[in-house]
Amino acid sequence: MFTDEYYMARAITLAKKGWYTTHPNPRVGCVLVRDEQIIAQGWHQYAGQGHAEVNALSQIEAGDNAQGATAYVTLEPCSHFGKTPPCSNALIDAGIKRVVVAMVDPNPLVAGNGIKRLQENGVAVTSGVLESEARALNPGFIQRMEINRPKIRCKMAMSLDGRTAMANGDSKWITASDAREDVQRLRAESSAIVTGIGTVTADDPSMNVRSQKFAHLFEDHGRQPERVILDTQLNMSVQAKMLSLPGQTLVLAGQEYAAQEKIQALENKGAEVFLLATQLLTSHSEKRSLSLDAVMSVLTERQYNDVLLEAGATLTGSMLQAGFVDELIIYMAPHLMGSEARGLFNIPGLDSMNKRINLSIQDIRCVGRDYRITAKPEIMN
Question: Bigger pLDDT: 190 or 220?
């Protein structure tokens, strides 16, 4: 006899099929079972298209129906009208007698209402089955719903002695091809890629997904992670390579530097320009930078779930000190670059051990000839 956990595990496996494509929606899988037999299954594939429950119901063979079946769903069925009708209604109308839910939907538009609607219509509901595994499907979506900002992962590459570029700025390539291919995976998982104008000016990067492994996902449906450039003084060149590539580019600039002619030129190249509040870099400086709180508001309003920060030492250090970096992914190459080379983060003010930023190592593994270290910051007070 199979257990609820068995069928939910299958639903979680199905949800992973939408790993790169459901933005900004969560990844969800659904399995329909009757008399210990799976009669249909589905997963959410693309935003604006059918949800997992509806896709599963549509797979029921002609002449059969879901009357009296049990539905295993990795996320509480929705109860509101969005781009598609409520899934809770679809399950009720199909005659489902029991629904097993891995976790309650953290979206305030649902948040228990889907379960309530099912129960009010005579459907038995069991929740919390493989909840931790289900939460791992959608860390960015869950965080955006629970604390109103996306999950931010900071990707860096360094030598064994913690250097990211030579003194003259040369950084190609610190890591080998396997690690660079792994970064393509991180980009493909992300709603947006954030960098600073310094990186754009120095490297003229593409900031896109171009690996053949993921090409079909992005060519068939036209989704590239949106590129977000933090550019306080609006120095973005209209000749920047990324402006000629598929995908949307957002330039976040300071209100004080709103040159309308420059804004129009960038918009003519397809970019969006947002003007944000700025703040003094330090109490002893007249230089200004974008308010990171204002930046976070834009990222949240754009419904980004998972954001990849690929930037230089100044921006990554500022984001880290502000508490906006949720995860560090550092690729470490087996070579030394010397004391004159550039460091990993610019973090001023760490002048004693009790001010250091501790990290909780989550994973260390080989990626080709390099190592990938995954860690979570633990900012000490």
Answer: 190
What percentage of residues in the chain have a pLDDT greater than 70?
A: 94
The CA distances from residue 111 to 71, 104, 116, 296, 323, in Å, are 19, 6, 10, 24, 27
pTM metric for this prediction: 0.91
Q: Tell me the pLDDT tens digit for each residue of 98-157.
A: 999 999 999 988 888 999 999 999 999 999 999 999 999 999 999 999 999 999 999 999
**For position 110, what pLDDT does the model report?**
82
Q: What's the average model confidence in pLDDT over 333-359?
A: 86
Task: Tally Cβ neighbours within 10 Å of residue 146.
Answer: 11
Map the chain to HEC letters. CCCHHHHHHHHHHHHHHHCCCCCCCCCCEEEEEECCEEEEEEECCCCCCCCHHHHHHCCCCCCCCCCCCEEEECCCCCCCCCCCCCHHHHHHHCCCCEEEECCCCCCCCCCCHHHHHHHHCCCEEEECCCHHHHHCCCHHHHHHHHHCCCEEEEEEEEECCCEEECCCCCCCCCCCHHHHHHHHHHHHHCCEEEEEHHHHHHHCCCCCCCCCCCHHHHHHHCCCCEEEEECCCCCCCCCCHHHHCCCCEEEEEEHHHCCHHHHHHHHHCCCEEEEECEEECCCCCCCEEECHHHHHHHHHHCCCCEEEECCCHHHHHHHHHCCCCCEEEEEEECCCCCCCCEECCCCCCCCCHHHCEEEEEEEEEEECCEEEEEEEEEECC
Residues 6+ apart with CB under 8 A from 313: 164, 342, 343, 344, 345, 346
Q: Which residues are catalytic?
A: 53
Amino acid type, 142: I
